[in-house]
């Protein structure tokens, strides 16, 4: 007689299991009907499974994921997986089978479907807020059907993770050809992504007319994964569709044959190309748009990569202009935009056994020329690399830029910078102690902020770099112009030093400077309600995080108008309190703050005979 449980009934810690179960020892055939109920979860299985035949159904329904996960955390086998994880929502899994397990189940037909209308999670390991992750699944559908040699899989749904939203549609086929050997085919893959902090939707989709084939094989000596050639399309929040094509890829690894043998390093290779990539997509990836920089573009890029790992990692990647042009806003905004007349734009990156080199070439008629190069030696660290402070570095920079608004990327919002630049600089030394050598010149410099009344123009800069020092031989700006004449002049000379020492020291302790500033009838503001003209000299010194400003300034003329509605005041119902505990807390925070700049101010102010408020 086979072992038989005609009636099974178990109650344990709010869980209930009942049903019947038969098991035949000789044939290992099993037949039963079981129902499980615990807080937030119900399950049932009904069927028979033997060597040559079988049939049955399985159902698992989660009505409250929070209650179910809390109950499962009581059991040691599940406590580790569910620790510090909070779940909410519902899900349902239904499955059925037909056939037996003969020939390792190759004739067994299975079908399963998973549905989760909404399932949210929140993970906070041991209260560590920096590792807090949360998200939710919406409309999740996953189906698998077929036999072991021929399985079909489809899924679609949406995932909200932090500020990102992901939607996907996937269909694939897979099958086990023999023990340790699987093959699959990706028929459809579509992924859309959106970030709440950035406008627009990104869509990545494979070519459905060319399914991507995968081959996974595990043997006694090694294991390998092969991916066939394929293509995909990428669409961004702005017009354009980038095309991605890759050649057949391979990954393999020799297996250790005994416990004393070291696991061999995996070997792999990948090659491919990208084309029709719009430069205008940068607007969706950066804080400033191209329009903010006085630029617009229909420039299209193309590139390639060739990467492999044998004895070491070798990588060669390139991105260059394939068509289109930049348009520059020059002079006044009403003058419109002029084409840059691009001749070359090319970025290259190479990695050869830890030696990293990169270069950027830019050549145009109206947007200037640039040639940048950089190289260094990376040090291996675990499975990756690290850049040591004593690593040798080398580089060069040659720039010729016309007067375009792209300078404004260095300015606060609402400010505009303009000017031409010529630079020829070389870089040597180490990361901790770089040595610069070269010249920087700028002409027709202008700084403008309409709201703040800042309007400086006709600026010049001549500077020399040597070692870790910048000598400012000349820097001048003309003040806000007026109908009666020029706005005076501001002149600055001096040096800025980057002191050698501990690479871990704070920024201010390694920065030193000695500057001389002179103002000659300098008009500070272009606003009619803030007419201020000053003259004088100020010497600025910075050493060991101590800033000293000594000199004298005189107001040649000033007329400052303060409207009655511009002076902020507190209402009668506002009471300001500063408890001693808060003051002490702020004092401790200020003491901990590093670096701390100590100021030494000694500037004589002469308001002059024509200072009016």
By DSSP, the count of extended strands is 39
User: Unreliable stretches, pLDDT < 50, 5 or more residues?
Assistant: 590-594
Strand order of the largest sheet: 11-12-15-16-18-17-14-13
Mean residue pLDDT: 86
Concise account of the structure shown:
6% of the residues lie in helices and 61% in strands. With 613 residues, it is mainly β.
Structure explained in plain terms:
The longest helix is centred in the last third of the chain and has 13 residues, at 580-592. The chain contains five helices and 39 strands. Helices cover 6% and strands 61% of the residues.
Topology:
Elements: E1 4-12, E2 15-23, E3 30-38, E4 41-49, E5 54-62, H1 65-72, H2 76-82, E6 85-98, H3 102-105, E7 109-123, E8 133-147, E9 150-161, E10 164-178, E11 181-195, E12 198-206, E13 212-218, E14 222-227, E15 230-235, E16 241-246, E17 249-254, E18 267-278, E19 295-297, E20 300-309, E21 313-323, E22 326-329, E23 337-339, E24 342-352, E25 355-364, E26 369-377, E27 379-381, E28 384-386, E29 393-401, E30 416-429, E31 434-449, E32 454-467, E33 469-478, E34 489-498, H4 507-510, E35 511-523, E36 530-543, E37 546-560, H5 580-592, E38 598-606, E39 611-612
Parallel strand pairs: 37-38, 37-39
Antiparallel strand pairs: 1-2, 2-3, 3-4, 4-5, 5-6, 6-7, 7-8, 8-9, 9-10, 10-11, 11-12, 11-13, 12-15, 13-14, 14-17, 15-16, 16-18, 17-18, 18-20, 19-22, 20-21, 21-24, 22-23, 24-25, 25-26, 26-29, 27-28, 29-30, 30-31, 31-32, 32-33, 33-34, 34-35, 35-36, 36-37
């Amino acid at each position: 007689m086979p072992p038989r449980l005609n009636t099974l009934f178990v109650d344990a810690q709010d869980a209930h299991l009942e049903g019947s179960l038969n098991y035949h020892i000789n044939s290992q055939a099993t037949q039963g009907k079981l129902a499980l109920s615990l807080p937030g979860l119900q399950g049932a299985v009904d069927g028979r499974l033997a060597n040559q035949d079988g049939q049955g159904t399985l159902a698992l329904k989660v009505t409250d994921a929070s209650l179910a996960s809390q109950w499962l955390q009581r059991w040691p086998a599940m406590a580790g997986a569910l620790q510090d994880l909070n779940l909410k929502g519902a899900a349902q899994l239904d499955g059925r089978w037909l056939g037996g397990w003969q020939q390792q189940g190759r004739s067994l037909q299975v079908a399963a479907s998973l549905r989760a209308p909404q399932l949210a999670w929140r993970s906070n390991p041991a209260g560590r807020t920096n590792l807090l992750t949360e998200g939710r699944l919406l409309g999740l559908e996953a189906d698998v059907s077929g036999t072991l040699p021929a399985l079909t899989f489809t899924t679609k749904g949406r995932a909200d993770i932090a500020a990102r939203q992901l939607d996907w549609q996937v269909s694939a086929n897979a099958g086990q050809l023999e023990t340790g050997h699987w093959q699959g085919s990706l028929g459809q893959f579509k992924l859309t992504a959106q970030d709440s902090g950035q406008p627009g939707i990104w869509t990545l989709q494979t070519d459905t007319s060319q399914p991507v084939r995968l081959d996974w094989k595990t043997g006694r000596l090694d294991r390998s994964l092969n991916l066939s050639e394929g293509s995909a399309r990428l669409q961004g929040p702005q017009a354009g569709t980038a095309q991605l094509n890759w050649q057949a890829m391979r990954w393999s690894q020799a297996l250790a044959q005994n416990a004393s043998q070291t696991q061999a390093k995996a070997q792999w290779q990948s090659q491919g190309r990208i084309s029709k990539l719009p430069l205008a997509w940068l607007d969706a990836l950066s804080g400033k748009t191209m329009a903010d920089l006085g630029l617009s573009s229909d420039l299209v890029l193309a590139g390639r990569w060739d990467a492999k790992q044998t004895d070491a990692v070798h990588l060669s990647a390139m991105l260059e202009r394939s068509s289109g042009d930049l348009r520059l806003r020059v002079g006044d905004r009403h003058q419109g935009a002029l084409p840059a007349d691009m001749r070359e734009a090319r970025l290259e990156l190479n990695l050869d056994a830890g030696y990293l080199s990169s270069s950027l070439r830019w050549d145009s008629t109206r947007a200037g020329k640039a040639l940048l190069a950089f190289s260094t030696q990376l040090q291996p660290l675990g499975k990756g690399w690290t850049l040591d402070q004593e690593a040798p570095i080398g580089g060069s920079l040659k720039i010729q830029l016309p007067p375009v608004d792209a300078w404004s990327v260095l300015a606060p919002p609402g400010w505009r910078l303009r000017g031409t630049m010529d630079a020829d600089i070389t870089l040597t030394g180490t990361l901790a102690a770089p040595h610069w050598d070269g010249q920087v010149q700028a002409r027709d410099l202008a700084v403008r902020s309409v709201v703040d009344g800042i309007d400086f123009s006709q600026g010049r800069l001549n500077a020399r770099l040597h070692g870790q020092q910048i000598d400012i031989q000349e820097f001048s700006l003309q003040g806000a112009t007026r109908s009666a004449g020029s706005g005076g002049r501001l002149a600055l000379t001096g040096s800025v030093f980057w002191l050698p020492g501990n690479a871990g020291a704070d920024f201010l302790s390694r920065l030193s400077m000695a500057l001389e500033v002179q103002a000659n009838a300098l008009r500070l503001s272009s606003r009619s309600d803030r007419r201020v003209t000053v003259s004088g000299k100020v010497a600025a010194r910075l050493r060991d995080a101590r800033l000293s400003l000594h000199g004298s300034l005189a107001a040649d003329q000033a007329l400052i108008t303060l409207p009655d509605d511009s002076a902020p005041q507190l209402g009668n119902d506002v009471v300001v309190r500063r408890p001693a505990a808060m003051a002490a807390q702020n004092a401790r925070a200020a003491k901990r703050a590093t670096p701390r700049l100590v100021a030494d101010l000694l500037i004589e102010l002469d308001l002059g005979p024509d200072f009016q408020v």
